[in-house]
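To close the section, here is one more complete example, presented without commentary so you can practise reading it yourself. The ligand is S-adenosylmethionine.
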Amino acid sequence: MSVSIESLPAAAAFTEALRHDWTQSEIEAVYQQPFNDLLWQAQQVHRRYFDANQVQISTLLSIKTGACPEDCKYCPQSVHYNTGLEREQLMDRQVVVDAARAAKQAGASRFCMGAAWRQPTDRNIDKVIELVQAVRDEGMETCLTLGMLTEKQAHKLKTAGLDYYNHNLDSSPEYYKKVISTRSYQERLDTLKNVRDAGMKTCSGGIIGMGEQRDDRLGLLQQLANLPEHPQSVPINMLVQVKGTPLHGTEELDPLEFVRTIATARIMMPKSMVRLSAGRSSMSDEMQSLCFLAGANSIFYGDKLLTTENPEADADRMLFNRLGIKTMEKPQ
Ligand code: SAM
Ligand code: DTB
Ligand code: SF4
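Output:
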């Protein structure tokens, strides 16, 4: 059974001001406290705004795959690395509609389409708008991630009815430079501004386990929470190590550092949906349960992320049953 997020009693009443002025030392104090205290604090914050037993689920589809000109060291879709990935042109409308229908049937409320572009051309935008409209007609919320957007492109997407735009900051400004050389952190921030100013909901988070230090994880969270508006959705990805990418072979991070990152994101951005994103295929059920306990309340659902694997939908359903978790419906 699913419940609408809008009907949650706790969500409406609480009026604590959201903060956008976090200092690094304040974040550190939250992040490094004893694990049980951190999870307790995260749970209390989580329960002010959300039903702690509800998770929102979105399904991803790569609508244009591979041959991306950017050099993100984690990404299997970059043209700079040989990962054996087959490149694919922009998908036909009917293929996308069929996938959206199947995702809705399986219980997803949002459909997220990703393209391996540095930035879409205006012609790309027109084609993608047709896809957004087709998915909306199926009764799902829509999300796109296409790379950098101009102000005009963001407005066009908003007018077409797009609900969310995903654009991750990925790491701290300092560590970002070590991972990507073909674009700047400021360009990321500029696109997020264009999306916000156009009136769309933002989805922005990062990747953990890229060899960054704890300070970089704190720096990422500081950037996200100190944006003029907290992203409505904050995806926290565990690096999926893909053979052929420079980050393949990175030393595995202590999984509890990942849980701490989720809990700290929950505390700093109390009204945002915190998404336990990539990397679930290599997590135990117990690790995922800890992430939900730390305040994660959304996931990607379906056996594929963009190009890499995700747990089977059946496995997720079983885990939700064991935990008594219900899925959220699309807001009306
Ligand atoms: N090209 C667009 C961009 O970079 O914004 C959209 C697609 S890109 C694949 C979307 C996000 O996927 C990236 O920002 C990154 O956070 C995430 N991602 C890519 N490869 C990943 C990996 N190997 N492990 C975890 N997350 C990854
Ligand atoms: C996000 O933060 N993670 C998703 C979604 N937003 C677009 C993408 C994860 C990609 C993992 C690697 C792959 O499957 O290609
Ligand atoms: Fe391209 Fe996005 Fe992959 Fe970077 S993360 S290489 S921009 S598809």
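Once you have examined the tokens, check your reading against these statements. Residues 68, 74-75, 77, 114, 116-117, 145, 147, 167-168, 170, 207, 237, 239-240, 242, 278, 306 surround S-adenosylmethionine (ligand 1) (CB under 6 Å). The longest strand covers residues 54-64.
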